[in-house]
Write a sequence for this structure.
């Protein structure tokens, strides 16, 4: 299984510390040995170490046997055992391109925000845009809405994908959006229409980010929100292109970080 250089094992890891989850990918010769998402309220240093211990145990490795570790995400500076740090846009672009080699535009949508990256033919990021500080266009807004409408996230996404009409919900401010949802509930607007309106609100903000970098096929969406079928199905007709989603979109940042670790640490 292992490739050795002298007496050193060639294993590499990427850690992505986000607002609600920590993700870890461990690689050997481009093969994913371990990949996991950990939802936690622990701070980054504790959560990343906890997940790393689990990954090392499952792969039968010790910390000393990892050649290089790269961290990314909003909490990347909290990972005490990382050799280097890299931005979310570089790591998600790298992970998406490795998973879907035809990727030219990458849209990462996570709990805190969204970012769009345009790649050249070599997979390098040549332009990127990040959403404003408002929570619209992020997983945070969607999660808040599940509590208001009292519908689980997965069910809400399916409803939005199949809805024939959508209530008008603000796309500019999360606070205003919540107020409009409550108002729609009180005035008797159907659940299906409200849920579709919530997703349209998020899609509107994602479109702003995408248009700032320009759309080039293939478009790949990463991050936890990529698993929401309602977002994908309502975004596709707006951009006029089919969207591709990696098998495990939430770990793309960690995968990209691991691939960079492999390069920096002397791997293939």
């Amino acid at each position: 299984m292992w490739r050795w250089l002298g007496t050193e094992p060639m294993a590499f890891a990427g850690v992505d510390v986000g607002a609600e989850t920590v993700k870890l990918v461990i690689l050997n010769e481009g093969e994913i040995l371990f990949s996991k998402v950990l939802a936690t309220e622990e701070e980054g240093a504790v959560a990343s170490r906890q997940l790393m211990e689990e990954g090392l145990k499952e792969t039968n490795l010790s910390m000393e046997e990892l050649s290089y570790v790269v961290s990314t995400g909003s909490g990347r500076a909290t990972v005490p055992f990382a050799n280097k740090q890299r931005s979310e846009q570089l790591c998600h672009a790298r992970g998406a391109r490795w998973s879907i080699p035809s990727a030219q535009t990458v849209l990462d949508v996570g709990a805190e925000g969204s970012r769009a990256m345009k790649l050249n033919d070599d997979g390098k990021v040549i332009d990127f845009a990040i959403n404003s500080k408002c929570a619209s266009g992020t997983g945070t807004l969607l999660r808040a809405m599940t509590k208001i409408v009292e519908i689980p996230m997965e069910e809400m996404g399916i409803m939005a994908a199949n809805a024939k009409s959508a209530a008008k919900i603000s796309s500019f401010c999360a606070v205003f959006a919540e107020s409009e949802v409550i108002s729609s509930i009180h005035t008797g607007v159907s659940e299906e229409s409200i849920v579709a309106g919530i997703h349209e609100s998020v899609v509107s903000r994602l479109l702003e980010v995408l248009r700032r970098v320009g759309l080039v096929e293939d478009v790949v969406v990463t991050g936890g929100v990529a698993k929401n079928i309602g977002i994908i199905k309502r975004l596709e007709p707006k951009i006029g292109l089919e969207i591709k989603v990696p098998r495990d979109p939430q770990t793309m940042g960690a995968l990209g970080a691991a691939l960079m670790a492999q390069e920096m640490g002397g791997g293939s």
About this structure: The two ends are 15 Å apart (CA to CA). Residues 1-7 have pLDDT under 50 and may be disordered. Residues 101-245 form a domain with the Nucleotidyltransferase; domain 5 fold (CATH 3.30.420.40). The chain has two domains: 4-93+251-264, 101-245.
